[in-house]
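Example record

One chain of 502 residues, shown exactly as stored in the release files.
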Amino acid sequence: MKALDLANKKVFSTVLKLTLPAMLAQFVSVLYSIVDRMYVGNIEGTGDIALTALGVCAPMATLLTSFGYLVGLGGAPLFAMSMGEGDMQKAKKILANALVMLVGLSVIAMAITFIFAKPLLMTFGASNATYEYARQYLLIYTAGTLFSVVSVGLNQFIIAQGYSGIGMATTLIGALANIALDPLFIFTFKMGVAGAALATILSQFVSFAFVIIFLFLKGTKCRLSFGGYDIKIMLKVIKMGISPFLIVATDSIIIIASNICLKAYGGKNADMWISSLTVVQAFLSIITMPMMGISTGSQPVISFNYGARNLDLIKKGEKCILGMCVAFTTIMFGLSFVVAKPFVGLFTDNPVIAENSVWGIRIFMIGIIPLAFQYAFVDGMTALGQPQFAIVLSLTRKLVLYLGATLLLPKLLGAHAVFYAEPIADIGAAVLSTTVFLIFFPKILKKRASTMPAANTSLSDTAILPDTDISFNKTNKNTTKEMPFDTEEDKNLSEDENSENN
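Predicted structure tokens for this chain:
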């Protein structure tokens, strides 16, 4: 189990080795929902209604998964920074706190979903025809929340250690299990929608077990441990992870709003439009999820070198990440004109749903290349420990541009106008994110350079967190060194660690 050298001066090679497995892992993770929708849409007699039901459940499934990203993508940059500083004890403590957070959030989310299942589904766009199918799927899927959230969250800490191949394997084995189990439970055991949900949670358990076992292995660089729980660490993880959490969680809000508008303005064709949107969103996820693999999978390079103060490597890394995002979206934009129709055919043989789904894919692709800038720059800010920028940019795209267009356009143009909200939000957010990044990125690096340690101070002996302003002496058994911290909380946290270590 050889980990990557995140300080390697061949930045493109390092980014490539991190992002390719992450992209593949995210692509494979998309198969969880796509395979479910594909098989369910082909259930004889009830396929179209069942497919609509899965579209209604999609916001809840997305929201549940987002808690894994809150902790995983919030804790992993802090974890990588600590490793870059040479503070393995602190990295170990962050990992232990992350596990507790993931388990706690899973239990809370499960309880809320079980209690409020019916009003949630009716709010999300369920009709009398689709409610029972949606209820079956959601309740079974929710039972496996712990497996999904913990595996998604802890997998980020595996990737942050440089084990990109293991991170890919975590998702791959779960997806392959789902592909194998879906037809067995749906068709052979004749369980229908319930079978699709059961196959999904069993597959998530496989990924969960794989992650836990790997993090306990002796050969793992930073192993999972228990103890050292600290509310200050948990709050830092939430602060860092709130942006990726909102990116994923607000997807649920958008889907909910879209379904409500389609139901309100679609008339007798409302279920047809929801089915079409479900297929279009499945196609979009084939692009956005692997692109998130690029932008988040490469974060360890940025975070580690920020902790080690390798500023030139950060600049090179950001250029590589942006270039890969743009190249990927450009390729997928071109392919969409070729594969849209056969892709839709995997889900339905209804000619009306198929025609509108292909049209919807064309509309969604209008802003897909500009979206690459949004992903690269927002996740780049998070990797640099600047979640405040990432949060504002993410919320602006989803809750101002996207949600605003989703609510306004159908009133003016009809139900089909819901589909135009995607490119409007993508293009507008790309312009804003690029402007903000070009203004503040140089300032962040300049401030970092101003806190460079003295020549006789080893980087591995100097703990740095983002926006460091306060310095104090940290004394160990042999020597005293200056260690800057960004808040008094960090100072207290370091003192707590010293008392534990001594």
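Notes: The radius of gyration is 23 Å.
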